[in-house]
Write a structure and sequence with these properties.
three-stranded antiparallel beta sheet; single chain; about 140 residues; mainly alpha; globular; rbstp2171
Length: about 140
């Protein structure tokens, strides 16, 4: 029997890899055969949503959800090379998109990020909770 060779990854290995899953989300409302490519969230992006929740402990689930969708949309819609299509200064542009489209895009982002198993989880609120300092239970 052949011995399995194992190797601990180095910092350089991890920095070079940074693999992020992507998914093409159909956008029929923007034209036949069109799509937006999205990627899973980075740890820092998930932290931005958690920070919003910490800063606004009395915000409704709807407020948290909408702001989370905004962050996901403008940070996780990417071009063909995997770079974000929108920057920090473009959040007002991303805010103008139809919410149904944003919700569909964010459903894919959440699946890719391990926050939802399927699109039904997004629309029914059955999401994996982001850890926050104020959270006492999961969603």
């Amino acid at each position: 029997m052949a011995k399995t060779v194992t190797r601990q990854l180095t910092r350089q290995d991890l920095v070079a890899a940074r693999i992020r899953k992507t998914e093409d989300v159909p956008t029929p409302e923007l034209g036949e055969g069109t799509f937006l490519r999205v990627r899973g969230m980075k740890t820092g992006e998930q932290a931005a949503i958690a920070e919003f929740m910490d800063r606004n402990p009395n915000a409704s689930g709807t407020t948290v959800g909408i702001n989370g969708f905004r962050i996901m949309f403008w940070r996780c819609v990417v071009d063909e090379s995997g770079e974000p299509m929108f920057g920090e200064d473009d959040s007002d542009i991303a805010d103008e998109f139809d919410f149904e489209l944003v919700q569909r895009v964010c459903a894919a982002v959440m699946r890719l990020s391990g926050l939802a198993e399927d699109e039904g989880d997004v629309t029914t609120g059955k999401l994996v909770a982001l850890p926050t300092e104020n959270a006492s239970s999961t969603a």
